[in-house]
Design a protein that fits this description.
This protein has 281 residues and is mainly alpha-helical. It has helices at 3-11, 26-35, 42-58, 64-74, 91-99, 102-111, 117-133, 149-160, 168-182, 193-206, 212-226, 236-257, 265-276, and strands at residues 140-141, 145-146. It has a two-stranded antiparallel sheet with strand order 1-2. It holds the Pfam family DUF2785.
Amino acid sequence: MDALALKQMLLQLPSVNLSAYGLEQPYDLALHMMHHIGSPDPVLRDELIYFTMAEWIGQHVFSDEQLKALLLLAMDEEHLFYRIGEQGTDSVFTRAFSVLMLPPILGVDRQRPFLHRDEIHWIKERLITYLRGEMDVRGYVENKGWAHAPAHAADAVEDLAKSPYLARTDLLELLHALSIKVMESNQVYIYDEDQRMAQAAMTILGRNLLEQAELEDWVKLLQDARSEDEDEGRTLQQFSQLSLNIRMFMQSLYFVIRDQKAEPFPLACSLLLRALNGRDD
């Protein structure tokens, strides 16, 4: 099915709840949607394909086997890793909206577990590899809508971090992978990426599995990155952008956890506040 035919079909779905009622083969249609999930048409990609898929997943339209198949498809080389490393091209839409398939699928898994431990760990490894490899951090693209890969990846990290199959070392790996996107030097985040990443970090910290020394080292990593000189080969503008992105993230994280009384949030607040004030004591 070509993009135009798919768009016309999706536009005919009930606008209230995007119900799959009456469709003979919703899974077959979902496969067509996955084929066009990276369309540069923002209406087709975002308003129709993604929201329809997320709604159907939440409505339990698909079986466990079908959800697993959609998950594997979203995370394969033609979706999550499609032309990974490119910057400024339309390939980012495929990657950014494929990673955004994780939250609704993982949400169903929390309601009725169907993913095994080894599958959750495989997802973690794929997501970390993606965070390290994604170079296109544009937010909103004129005439083509949202790319927003860092924010979408952060949403995936947040959902994955809730899995009981992830232990302390897994969460620490996710936190450091997320930090790669926090420490962006090529542009300033202006589309609330800092808040989405802060929510993901809050979920990781909220598991209360990280050791105090690991938390201290992580905050110090962010603080040190803000105080590096230009020996890293960055221009003054790149360093300024990196420093601003880190500061905005730390501020966002501080404000979302400052009223949380459970451990380790009081410690994290103290560490973040000292780092923001430029103190090492």
